[in-house]
Amino acid sequence: EVQLVQSGAELKKPGESLKISCKGSGDNFITSWIVWVRQTPEKGLEWMGIIYPADSNIRYSPSFQGQVTISADRSINIAYLHWSSLKASDTAMYFCARRGNWRAFDSWGQGTLVTVSS
Amino acid sequence: DIQMTQSPSFLSASVGDRVTITCRATQTISTFLNWYQQKSGRAPKLLIYGASSLQSGVPSRFTGSGSGTEFTLIISSLQPEDFASYYCQQSYSSPYTFGQGTKLEIK
Questions:
Q1: How far is C-alpha A113 from the chain's CA centre?
Q2: Tell me, what DSSP letter sits at residue B91?
Q3: Which residues contact A74 (CB under 8 A, 6 or more apart)?
Q4: Which of A5, A19, A23, A48 is deepest in the core (most CB within 10 A)?
């Protein structure tokens, strides 16, 4: 089973950039699809996009296309979520997860709280 | 996008009760329907995948059923650790959308 550990909470100002990470343990990480999910009280759980670290094949939800960048470094088993210019509306909890059988998300990181405030 | 609607949004029940949560999709998703449990401050946890398959380690009091557009999660006898929020999610087509959640509270 892939275990996922995310980077710590972040407090940033609007306009700043940010990259958060999701480190996987085990050989299966590279050949697992890794998703990013946003959670807010207003909108609940939202699927942002997915990456296959073995070849960096990436798909974005239309709602997040152009708003964030998903990437991975297969040499160190890490997936990333990057913002070039944060907005207050990016304040949320962000989870990474592994896509398993029936495309369900069967292993989750602990979450990274991102707060964007001036 | 496929929209997922859960009912009820809030549910008050007692230990030992049988509870049912329903999830409806705006178009057919076959059995690409998953259920998650989330406790406060924690990541979601997969309970059921493929509409009715129990994830490894999940107690058998959790049962999922349905196909097409209507799905059900049943907890046969509530235990204290089951009071949490529950989410359905379709994995039939991208973007993989979630229901708005059902918060299960102690009566």
A1: 11
A2: -
A3: A30, A53, A54, A56
A4: A48
pLDDT at A27 over 80: no
Q: How far apart, in whole angstroms, are the C-alpha atoms of residue A17 and residue B21? A: 40
Contact between B44 and A105 using a beta-carbon 8 Å cutoff:
yes
Interface test with B, best of A1, A3, A47 (most B CBs within 10 A): A47
Q: pLDDT per residue over B15-64, tens digit each?
A: 999 999 999 999 999 999 999 999 999 999 999 999 999 999 999 999 99
Amino acid identity of residue B57, one-letter, is G
Instruction: In chain B, count H helices and then E strands.
Output: 0, 10
Interchain CB distance below 8 Å, B32 and A102? yes
Verify whether the Cβ–Cβ distance B43 to A109 is below 8 Å: yes
Check pLDDT > 90 for residue A6: yes
Cα(A9)–Cα(A109) distance, integer angstroms: 13
